C-alpha cells in the first residue's frame, strides 16, 4: 500500500523500534531486524526520544542501536522517526526540527529519513512556521515525507490547509492511538480526516499494551512492570472482544494478537499497524498478523463486539 499520496510503499506490519537499545540489546536488535526483513517487513518506526525514560538513557538509543544494521541493509527498509519529545530537543521550533532531523539521520547512519513525524503538537510555535520547516527538509531531501502524531483533529486539518495555502509539502501519514478496544477517538474524529486528505494511518498501541494478546483474565489482578500500561484497557466490556479474538484465533490456529492486528489491517484507512518485539519469538507471532486475512464475518463480529469502546 502506498503511504498516502507518496510513492513510498509499506507492507504488512510496521515494526516499532522502541525496545531497541532498551529491552533489546544490539545483538538482539539485529536478529529482530533480520527476521523482520526476511519475513517481508519493510518499515521501521522509531523516535528520537526512544528510550529516554530508561535509567541512564537520554534518547536516541533506539536509532543508534540500528546504525550498523541499516548500513548493511538500507535498501530493504523504510525508516520513520519523530521529533518533539526528546528531552534536549523538545518542541517544534524550526531550528529544533532541523537539528533533530540531522541528529537522527546521523545516529542511524542514513542520508535520508523516509518518514519524519511531528511527535506531538507545540502550541508555543505558530503552525505555519513548523509546517514550513518540515516542508523545507522535504524539499532539501533530508526527509522524504512528513507525518503527524498526537495532534488534536482540528490541528491536523489546520496543517493540511496551511500546506495547501502556502504550497508547502503536506503530511502523508497519521499515527494515532487505535486498536480494537480504543476505537471511538480515532473513528469518530480522525478517520474522516485521514479519508479526506488521503493520509496513511499507522496505529500505535495496536495490541493495547499486550491486552489484546489474551494473556489477561477477567477478575484477576494485573501484576508486573506493564500494570500501569494495561490498566486503561481493563473493564468488563473490553474483555468481550478478547473472548472473540480467542475464538477466532483457536479456529485459525493463530494467536489472538495476530487476529487483532489483522482486524486493524482490514480497516480502510490503515496502511500498517505498529507493533514491537523484544525478541524473535515475539516477532514471529506479530508477523502472522501481517498476512492473516480475516473473513468478512470475522471482521464484522469483532467490530460489533467492540462497538462503543
What would your notes on this structure say?
With 309 residues, the protein is of the alpha/beta class. 44% of the residues lie in helices and 11% in strands. It contains 12 helices and 8 strands. An 8-stranded parallel β-sheet has the order 7-6-5-4-3-2-1-8, covered by helices on one side. It is globular. The model has no long low-confidence stretch (mean pLDDT 94).
Give the tags.
eight-stranded parallel β-sheet; 309 residues; globular; 44% helix; 12 helices; alpha/beta
Helix count equals 12
Secondary structure: number of strands: 8
Please estimate the helix content.
40-55%
Our estimate of the beta-strand percent is 5-15%
Rg to the nearest angstrom? Answer: 19 Å
Quaternary structure of the protein? single chain
Tell me the overall shape.
globular
The description of the largest β-sheet is:
8 strands, parallel
Mean pLDDT: 94
Stretches where pLDDT falls below 50 for ≥5 residues?
A: none
Give the N-to-C terminal Cα separation.
28 Å
Strand neighbour order, sheet with most strands:
7-6-5-4-3-2-1-8
Please identify the structural class as seen in this structure.
alpha/beta
What letter string, H or E per element, gives the SSE order?
EHEHHEHEHEHEHEHHHEHH
Amino acid at each position: 500500500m502506498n503511504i498516502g499520496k507518496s510513492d513510498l510503499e509499506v507492507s504488512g506490519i510496521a515494526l516499532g523500534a522502541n525496545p531497541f537499545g532498551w529491552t533489546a540489546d544490539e545483538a538482539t536488535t539485529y536478529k529482530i531486524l533480520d527476521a523482520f526483513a526476511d519475513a517481508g517487513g519493510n518499515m521501521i518506526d522509531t523516535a528520537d526520544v526512544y528510550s529516554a525514560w530508561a535509567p541512564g538513557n537520554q534518547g536516541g538509543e533506539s536509532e543508534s542501536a540500528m546504525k550498523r544494521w541499516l548500513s548493511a541493509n538500507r535498501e530493504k527498509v523504510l525508516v520513520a522517526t519523530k521529533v518533539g519529545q526528546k528531552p534536549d530537543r523538545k518542541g517544534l521550533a524550526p531550528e529544533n526540527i532541523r537539528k533533530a532531523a540531522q541528529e537522527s539521520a546521523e545516529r542511524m547512519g542514513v542520508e535520508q529519513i523516509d518518514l519524519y513525524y511531528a511527535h506531538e503538537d507545540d502550541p508555543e510555535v505558530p503552525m505555519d512556521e513548523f509546517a514550513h520547516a518540515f516542508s523545507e527538509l522535504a524539499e532539501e531531501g533530508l526527509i522524504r515525507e512528513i507525518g503527524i502524531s498526537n495532534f488534536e483533529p482540528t490541528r491536523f486539518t489546520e496543517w493540511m490547509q496551511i500546506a495547501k495555502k502556502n504550497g508547502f509539502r503536506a503530511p502523508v501519514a497519521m499515527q494515532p492511538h487505535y486498536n480494537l478496544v480504543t476505537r471511538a477517538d480515532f473513528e469518530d474524529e480522525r478517520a474522516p480526516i485521514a479519508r479526506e486528505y488521503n493520509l496513511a494511518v499507522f496505529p500505535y498501541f495496536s495490541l493495547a499494551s499486550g491486552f489484546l494478546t489474551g494473556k489477561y483474565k477477567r477478575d484477576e489482578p494485573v501484576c508486573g512492570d506493564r500494570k500501569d500500561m494495561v490498566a486503561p484497557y481493563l473493564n468488563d466490556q473490553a474483555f468481550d472482544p478478547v473472548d472473540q479474538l480467542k475464538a477466532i484465533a483457536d479456529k485459525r490456529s493463530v494467536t489472538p494478537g495476530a487476529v487483532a492486528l489483522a482486524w486493524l489491517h482490514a480497516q480502510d484507512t490503515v496502511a500498517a499497524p505498529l507493533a514491537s518485539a523484544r525478541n524473535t519469538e515475539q516477532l514471529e507471532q506479530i508477523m502472522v498478523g501481517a498476512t492473516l486475512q480475516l473473513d468478512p464475518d470475522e471482521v464484522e463480529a469483532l467490530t460489533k463486539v467492540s462497538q462503543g469502546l
